[in-house]
């Protein structure tokens, strides 16, 4: 009888977990105006530039660990200009990653186009923490924690960029009227696609539930 009660209890817990997971998935799918960019099971619509072994798919998430590599979204020929992008992210301790917007595919190297929204809750070698508009407007205190899922939300409207982490605004940036592309990096709010970053072999970052809403 005790064993049966324990078994029923376990089944009940599993049922609740399944329901919560399903509810979360359905909620994400039905966010008004948002389109899913990742099917949770394949690289369809995405292209890895270098070191493909740095990427895998596990439990419905892109998982990156390995030498520098970037995973570019190539599933839509129309570039993204004004949009809201939401990505659920999970980091291991001392991990670094990134989410790029207004970028474009390149075969190797750190992306020269667009902006990086930092993913770094405790990476010791870089003071720029999660939510930073990297090297443009930096966040020095991590707004999220390793070992748990958090949502990074990027809103771009014309020259105005807002970054939220778990619904808290951490960056509010308006590009100056006289901003010009630099010699090595194109850091002007323009248009392009998205990319995810595998930073180094010691970093493990997961990305899932990647969805976007155009604001054009």
TrEMBL record:
Gene Ontology MF terms in the entry: hydrolase activity
Keywords: Signal
InterPro entries, per database record: AL/BT2_dom (IPR010496)
Origin superkingdom: Bacteria
Record domain 3-keto-alpha-glucoside-1,2-lyase/3-keto-2-hydroxy-glucal hydratase: where: 33-213
Signal peptide range: 1-27
Listed name of the protein: 3-keto-alpha-glucoside-1,2-lyase/3-keto-2-hydroxy-glucal hydratase domain-containing protein
Organism of provenance: Planctopirus limnophila (strain ATCC 43296 / DSM 3776 / IFAM 1008 / Mu 290)
